[in-house]
Amino acid sequence: MDILLFLIPMALFLGLLGLGAFLWALRSGQFDDLDGAAQRILFDDDEPPPGDDRP
Questions:
Q1: Which residues, including other chains, have CB under 8 Å from residue 31's CB and lie 6 or more apart?
Q2: Which is deepest, 2, 26, 51, 52, by most CB within 10 Å?
């Protein structure tokens, strides 16, 4: 029963830490462009990447 005195505050701290990380990511623009990467993969690159010697 004494372990609950340790686990409950630890769980609340970790929950608040996760919420803080989510709010930081939201404010810093991590979720702004959700469709860009999904559409970018559909287009072919015209030039091979540098250092690629294949014909």
A1: 25
A2: 26
Helix, strand, coil shares, percent, the chain, to 5 = 55, 0, 45
Q: How many percent of the chain have pLDDT more than 90?
A: 47
Query: For the whole model, what pTM was predicted?
Result: 0.58
CB 31 within 8 A of CB 25: yes
Domain boundaries, the chain: 1-44
Angstrom distance (rounded) from CA 8 to CA 1: 11
pLDDT of 55 higher than 60: no
